[in-house]
Every structure is written in structure tokens, then in C-alpha cells.
Amino acid sequence: MEREKKSGNDVHGLVIVHTGDGKGKTTAALGLALRAWGDGLRVLVLQFIKSGGDYGERKGFAALTAADGRMEMRSCGRGFTMRGHVPPEEHRRAAKEALADARAAIVSGRYDLIVLDEINYAVKFGLLRVEDVIDLLKARPAALHLVLTGRDAAPEIIARADLVTEMRLVKHPYQAGIKAQRGIEF
Amino acid sequence: MEREKKSGNDVHGLVIVHTGDGKGKTTAALGLALRAWGDGLRVLVLQFIKSGGDYGERKGFAALTAADGRMEMRSCGRGFTMRGHVPPEEHRRAAKEALADARAAIVSGRYDLIVLDEINYAVKFGLLRVEDVIDLLKARPAALHLVLTGRDAAPEIIARADLVTEMRLVKHPYQAGIKAQRGIEF
């Protein structure tokens, strides 16, 4: 079935960007991954900033992987740069490794959809150069869908994207003094 | 574990709205559902407009349901009102039934998160009254998270929400003449 789709005339890999200051950038990418997986595509979610931990998202994905190995999730980051006490060079090294990992996955032909989670943030915070990301886009096979998430997506990346959505914060519970809710916000 | 969370002091059910003209409103709700499920919450996705079919999202959810029954998805609609030839009164009847179903689920205590997918669209197109939706919000137990998706969310609903994100279309592949991609956009 996958082969059928890949040989069809209509398969045009999309470069999708989720950016903006609102919630839902990563979450919508996870939803896309779920839908694509359900439709028979081979999916990789590669997290540039996040360092793993037992987030609900990881557990949810593990269930999909267990059901059918077409779903993979890898966390290659060291956490957000504004939190914790990880030296900047460690963040940069992790980002470079994730970049190499992403490139290998992109050219491997093993996936139909790859999510590069928080890669825009990695560029914004100087962990990666925008040229590194453009090179990834250029290396992409024509049928591969790529999703790039993170706030402040570089204009060069937006210029090369097919589908760009800005998640805009309209109202946030922090504003009303409500703490972040487990299972929902983290 | 669920009970632990529910008895904690920090559980404050959020009313979350995903609106706007961009992609990702339903998709982010599905991602939220996946994350919440992975975190041990009991989840229901109730689709007001969609009529089922074998979307990838349904197959993905079916895998989660099979892994652990805490995930349910129900499609109660008759499809988008602008497509097909379903008489308006049938759309309205389906929406009323979905509303009753939603109310029963909300007051049942059986769920920690309920997604009311496309309910904003149902209001916008006159299938439901905004007062019907406000009544649902009022009936909600304090610890229950509700996600309401669909473009053109009514101001009365936004006023009662804790977290509102507008998904704004920045760039769409239709603009470049690229057809919708299976597994990604539908």
C-alpha cells in the first residue's frame, strides 16, 4: 500500500512549518504523525531540543510503535536552553548530532514523514545555522513530507515551505494564574 | 495513577479553543489527545461534523484504543455542510444528537479530556446555538479538560475559555497548485 502511494502521481512531499508564539506547534505535528501513521506512512519524530523524559507524548508514541514499527521517536536535545544549567557548547553539540541524524534519516528513504521538532528554535538560539536547515530541505527526496516546528521560523525556511501555519496565542491560563496541567500542557 | 492526579490540588480542567483559518486545529487536538492518553488520562474525541470514513486519524486512534481502552473516538456528523447533498435538517439533527452525546459524556465522570471537534463550525453554520455550547461548558466537572475546535469560534466561547490558540494560515500548497496529500492533509 505504501509502495502504491509512493508510485502514485499525486505524491508531492510537503515542507510544513508550524511556528508562532502559541501552543500547538509540536502538538499539531504529533497529531499529523498519528494521522500519517494511521494511513500507513512511515514516520519519524526527531526532537532537537527535548531530552526525553517520560512525557505523555512519548508513551503515546511507544504504543503506536508497539502496534506497528512504522513510528519512531528520538529525542536528541538537552532541554530548552533557557532552563537548567547545561553549557551552551553541549546544546550545540547535541544540535549538530541531531542534524546529522536528521540528514541520515532524510536521505535513507526509510520514512514518508519526518518531524523535525523545535528545529526552528534551535536556529533561533544559534544552535544551528539556517543554512544547515536549508541544506536538509535540499537533500529531501521529492516524496518525503517534512514538518519543522518551533517559534520564530527563519524567513528563509518559510520561503521554502509549502504549508506554513502560525499558532497565535490569543489567551493563556497563565494569565489567569492557573498552573500548567499535566497530560495537557506537558 | 489517574486517581492520584485527580485528587491532586493542581488539577484544573482547562477549556481550550483551537480556532482560525489555518491548518492544525483538529490535528493539534488529536496530538493533545495522544499526549493525554499517554499520560494516563481517559480521553474521548467527539466529532461534530465529520462522518467517519477511514481517515488515518481513526486508524491511529483505533491502535491506541486497542492498546488501552482509555481512548475513544466517535464521529457524529454528516460531513461538512458545504460539501455533498445532505439536507440541512439532517445536519441539524446530527448536531443535536452529538450535543446530547457530548453532554452525557461531560457529566458522566468517565473522561479526563473530551475533544469537541468542529463544534465551533457547527455553531458558525447554525447547526447549534452558541447557548447550547455555553451550557455544555457550565455542566463541566471542574477537573475535566475540554477542547473545542473549529474556525470562527464565537466570542462568547472565547470569553469562557482558558487557553485559546488561533491557527493562522501563512502559506498553503493550494496556492502553488499542489493537490492535498493523503495521510497528511486528510
UniProtKB/TrEMBL annotation, chains A, B:
Signal peptide: none annotated. Its EC number is 2.5.1.17. Pfam families: CobA_CobO_BtuR. Keywords: Transferase. GO terms for molecular function: ATP binding; corrinoid adenosyltransferase activity. One of its GO terms (biological process) is cobalamin biosynthetic process. InterPro entries: CblAdoTrfase_CobA, P-loop_NTPase. NCBIfam families: cobA (TIGR00708), PRK05986.1 (NF004637). This is Cob(I)yrinic acid a,c-diamide adenosyltransferase. It comes from Selenomonas bovis. The gene is cobO.
